[in-house]
Design a protein that fits this description.
The chain has about 600 residues and is α+β, with helices and mostly antiparallel strands. The protein is built from 27 helices and ten strands. The strands form two sheets. Strands 3-2-4-1-5 form a five-stranded antiparallel sheet, with helices on one face. The protein starts with 5 loop residues before the first helix and ends with a helix.
């Protein structure tokens, strides 16, 4: 055993604090990563990371390549290609549950090898809802498979995930061997096929039906007790005041969803609408607040039928079609700029002319004090809004509109051009005519020059949290080497694995990486484990490249929790899943992939 030096102990303290912050997320994980970077530089005498090395992650080929691939993926997304394929699947396989499952798995897994899997899943959520409406099959049965297939599909090529690109950079630095474009495609196909077969057989039996088909959104979100119609009496204190003034003075959790006057419905914007006697107000509030209104504000319960989806579909005389109101589910994207904000601090209602009726976080539906809840990635909001607003939300990268499969402003005519660009990027790198960094940056220029991506869309298309996460964590790998922490951890693992053969040690590295990536970022687990894997392989005389591949594949199989991978978080709310559903479906798959991946590594590359 090498000595446990003060330098190693200090680095472990930094890593331990970072891991805790990654899990509990008091601040975004990219900010934690930048904090790690700063700590390493400030403590240079012990960590060995000087300022130049500390900021080198921002100029790393891995970071810049990932940035370029975000823009190229946006070019494909903007053409609407995935939506066209989704429509075709809905038309062709909408009548068969099994065929639609296989088609969805094929689309999700196949495309994720070449474009970022986050936009793939973002498009597939509304596609799954469309399929579910046609077949009567719960979307819960399809959304976890979509996420898992997209995750596994990312292992088909070098550019499939940011983790692959980061691992290639680490491999080049540690052993002088980066990944080629199709370095592990053979194994990636084996892993993807294994996952698809499992999800189409055993997995589909384990997935619960959380969302019941045939329910209106009002019922699905449990709104029956929270939507009420009241009539404004002649002597009401609210008469003559605007809606905004009336409710600003009341300390109650309530929103006016709709105002009905002389059989004419008025919806957003309602803030400046003056209240008159006889007006019917549709309120979102609880029973205690309703009693307060009736007793103190001169309101009476309306004698009409309960509020339904149709009640809230406002149709005013002379109203333009895209101004008509309806209910829709929108999902907060995992990388959204609004994360950590509240509906109140974001002025959501005023900014979007939309009213949030309920918030679903996994299997929990929240009705009370929603405005004070900090928004998280994967939160699903039940929103009443006009078609115009829904189109705005659908074009906003912060949101995924769960019921919208197609949009009118896709650049369908650019599909051949966008496909040609991504083929050129992949081909030039695969044939080693240009490094992947150069070909991907050229891809950005080509996407903008051909109109696939507009100049103002370039920066918005990049998930900057991933970029800062990579830049912040890359120096951590350097510190693990320079302090001897990687060597020490490798020795500990090998002592614990005494008597085990090299393939079994390889399998343990895969499994351990897969477990920790379920609670921390996949990129963080790769940065932590790859230096350790290289040291361990060297100690037992095994091929370090194979151990790097094991860690790379393990880092992209976060099957056990909804927080381990972005695509899991994206389907968490729309599927109405409980936290434990991912463990229930993913644990057998995780163990199966541990065996298949380890065996594939040994058979293809040896140990």
């Amino acid at each position: 055993m090498p000595p446990l030096t003060p330098e190693i102990l200090l680095l472990f303290v930094i890593i331990g604090v970072a891991l805790v912050l990654f899990v509990i997320e008091p601040v975004p994980i990219d900010i934690v990563a930048v904090g790690v970077l700063v700590s390493l530089i400030v403590l240079e005498p012990w960590t060995g990371v000087d300022p130049e090395t500390g900021v080198s992650g921002f100029a790393s080929p891995a970071t810049l390549t990932v940035l370029a691939m975000f823009v190229i993926s946006e070019g494909i997304r903007r053409t609407g290609l995935i939506n066209i394929i989704g429509n075709e699947i809905a038309e062709r396989y909408g009548s068969s549950q099994y065929k639609q499952l296989l088609a969805v798995l094929g689309l999700s897994g196949g495309t994720a090898g070449f474009i970022n899997n986050t936009p793939v899943v973002a498009v597939m959520i509304p596609m799954v809802n469309t399929l579910s409406e046609r077949t009567g099959i719960s979307p819960s049965k399809l959304l976890i498979p979509v996420s898992y297939a997209a995750m596994l599909g990312g292992m088909l090529t070098l550019i499939g995930t940011s983790t692959n690109i980061l691992a290639s950079d680490l491999s080049a630095r540690l052993i002088g061997r980066p990944f080629s474009m199709f370095e592990f495609t053979q194994l990636g196909v084996l892993v993807l096929v294994t996952g698809v077969v499992y999800l189409a057989t055993v997995g589909r039996l384990l997935i619960p039906e959380r969302i019941k088909m045939g329910e209106e959104l009002i019922e699905e979100f449990g709104m029956a007790e929270y939507l009420t119609e009241v009539v404004v009496a002649e002597d009401s204190h609210l008469v003559g005041k605007t809606v905004d003034q009336s409710f600003a003075e009341l300390d109650v959790d309530a929103d006016v969803i709709q105002l009905i006057r002389d059989e004419q419905a008025f919806t957003e914007p309602l803030a400046r609408k003056e209240i008159r006697p006889g007006d019917i107000l549709v309120l979102r509030t609880d029973q205690d607040s309703i009693l307060t209104f009736i007793e103190t504000e001169g309101l009476d319960l309306a004698p009409d039928a309960p509020v339904t989806d149709d009640t809230l579909r406002a149709e005013q005389a002379g109203m333009e079609p895209d101004a008509e109101q309806r209910l829709v589910e929108i999902v907060v994207s995992p990388g959204a700029s609004i994360l950590g904000g509240t509906l109140e601090s974001l002025s959501f209602r005023d900014q979007y002319d939309a009213t949030v009726l309920a918030l679903r976080r996994g299997g929990e539906v929240i009705h009370a004090r929603m405005d004070e809840r900090k928004l998280r990635g994967g939160d699903t909001l039940l929103v009443q809004a006009s078609e115009r607003t829904i189109k705005r939300l659908a074009n906003d990268r912060d949101f995924i509109v769960a019921q919208e499969l197609t949009l009118p402003d896709f650049r369908y005519e650019r599909i051949p051009v966008a496909l040609a660009i991504i083929a050129a990027v992949v081909g030039l790198a695969a044939l080693e005519i240009l490094p992947i960094l150069v070909s991907s940056l050229a891809g950005i220029v080509a996407m903008v020059a051909t109109g696939c991506v507009k100049p103002e869309e370039v920066y918005a298309s990049v998930d900057w949290s991933v970029i800062f996460l990579l830049a912040g964590l890359i120096p951590l790998g350097v510190a693990m080497e320079r302090t001897g922490a990687a060597e020490w951890l490798a020795a500990v693992i090998l002592v614990a694995a005494t008597g085990l053969s090299a393939p079994l040690v390889l399998g343990l590295f895969y499994l351990f990486t897969a477990l920790i990536t379920n609670v921390v970022s996949n990129n963080a687990s790769a940065v932590l484990m790859i230096p350790v894997a290289v040291e361990a392989a060297s100690e037992i005389g095994a091929d370090p490249f194979v151990f790097i591949l094991a860690v790379t594949f393990g880092a992209s199989t976060a099957m056990l929790t909804p927080i381990g991978y972005q695509t899991n978080l994206m389907v968490y709310g729309p599927g109405g899943y409980k936290f434990t559903d991912f463990m229930r479906v993913g644990a057998p798959l995780q163990l199966l992939l541990a065996v298949v991946t380890t065996a594939g590594l040994v058979l293809i590359w040896g140990v």
